Amino acid sequence: MSLSEDATPAPLPTASAAAASPPPGRPPAAQDAAPGAPLPTPKRGRARALLALIGLVALGAALWFGADWMLSGRYVVSTDDAYVKADTAVIAAKVSGYVAEALAADNQRVTAGDPLVRIDDGDYRLAVQSAADKLATQDAAIARIGEQAGAQRATIEQARAQLAAAQADQTRAEAAFGRTQALSKSDFASRAQFDSALADKARAAAATQAAGAALAAAQQGLAVLEAQQIEARRARAELETAKARAERDMSFTTIVAPFDGVVGNKAVQPGQYVQPGARLLALVPLDTVFVEANFKETQLARIRPGQKVEIEVDALPGRAIAGEVASIAPASGAQFSLLPPDNATGNFTKIVQRVPVRITIAPELAREGVLRPGLSVVAKVMTKADAPPPSASTFSAIAAALRGRRAQ
């Protein structure tokens, strides 16, 4: 058999048959689709649903934020120029000397009256003893003058008795002179007797005068002694003051805490020589911390003492602390600066000033000790009296949620 007879060539496919037969690998749905029709996309429906959901969420959030702003947000005056503060005391030495003990450590909590630093008190003890010895010597001098005054009183009594005796002699001499004078007129007494009686009378008068002068001198001597005693007592009062001052100086060798607080910025060590006024450490009363918020002058119109405040501390994310406006400063912060601005000369550029507002914190929150002076805070003042406090504001919740999401 020849090749031309046995191998009959297959017929070629027509164009319609080629179009009707699908290429291999094409999906059945594509095989059933009409030629030229768009292919269906299931993902496009899911995208539309997701966009609709996002729109609903955005609309709900807008309504939520709008309602919150209408009810409380528009009444909130806030600033981030606010810091935690406290009435910190700088503990300094009152007397000079070498530090014997530094009893307080950094960051240690102490109560009022606890010893913080002890200065060597040897010299001050000697000063107290010297003052006490001088006081005892003055007491002895006062006692001596008192005894002298007692002796002088006895001398006065003696002079008074001598005066009485002299007065009695004078009375007798005058009576004898009267009798002698009467007898001499009748020639019953001689001239010599008369002269003798006259001399006795004069002598008695002189003795009375001398006794009176002695009594006056004795009384004057008593007055002098009493004046010396008063002077000695006043000198004793001066010595008593000197002793009290010496004791006070010695008491300053033990430096105690004036109030409850936490020790910080310690700059004293045993063996160090300190002078009066030398800075030793700082004492921070954490139980009485407060917030000083510097509001713009354009925000002060609605701020009043007694308004509620929400405090957000950067160190405590997600926690809102309640506070209350206590007072507003009498001047802007620039007026209390070292060099207050003088806008009366040169070119002028208006700058919005800030006025410090003191915000108190509830004592139970302050006693937790989580607030430290110097921490940055955001203060939000609720200026509407009947509006709900901003502690439950949506802004805080949203901010906390965003911070938590970033942390994840």
Write the layout of secondary structure elements.
Elements (H helix, E strand, L loop, with lengths): L2 H4 L8 H6 L7 H5 L9 H30 L4 E10 L3 E4 L4 E6 L6 E2 L4 E5 L2 H64 L5 H61 L2 E3 L4 E4 L8 E2 L4 E6 L5 E7 L11 E6 L6 E9 L25 E8 L1 H4 L9 E7 L11 H14 L1
Antiparallel strand pairs: 1-10, 1-14, 2-9, 3-5, 3-8, 4-7, 5-6, 7-9, 10-13, 11-12, 11-14, 12-13
Description:
The chain is of the alpha+beta class. The protein has 3 domains: 124 residues, Elongation Factor Tu (Ef-tu), domain 3 (Beta Barrel); 63 residues, OB fold (Dihydrolipoamide Acetyltransferase, E2P), CATH 2.40.50; 130 residues, Orthogonal Bundle (Helix Hairpins). It is 46% helix and 19% strand. It has 8 helices and 14 strands. Strands 1-10-13-12-11-14 form a 6-stranded antiparallel β-barrel. It has a 4-stranded antiparallel β-sheet with strand order 2-9-7-4, with no helix packed on it. Strand 11 and strand 12 form a beta hairpin. Helix 5 packs antiparallel against helix 6. The protein is elongated. The chain starts with a helix and ends with a helix. The relative contact order is 0.15. The N terminus and C terminus are likely disordered.
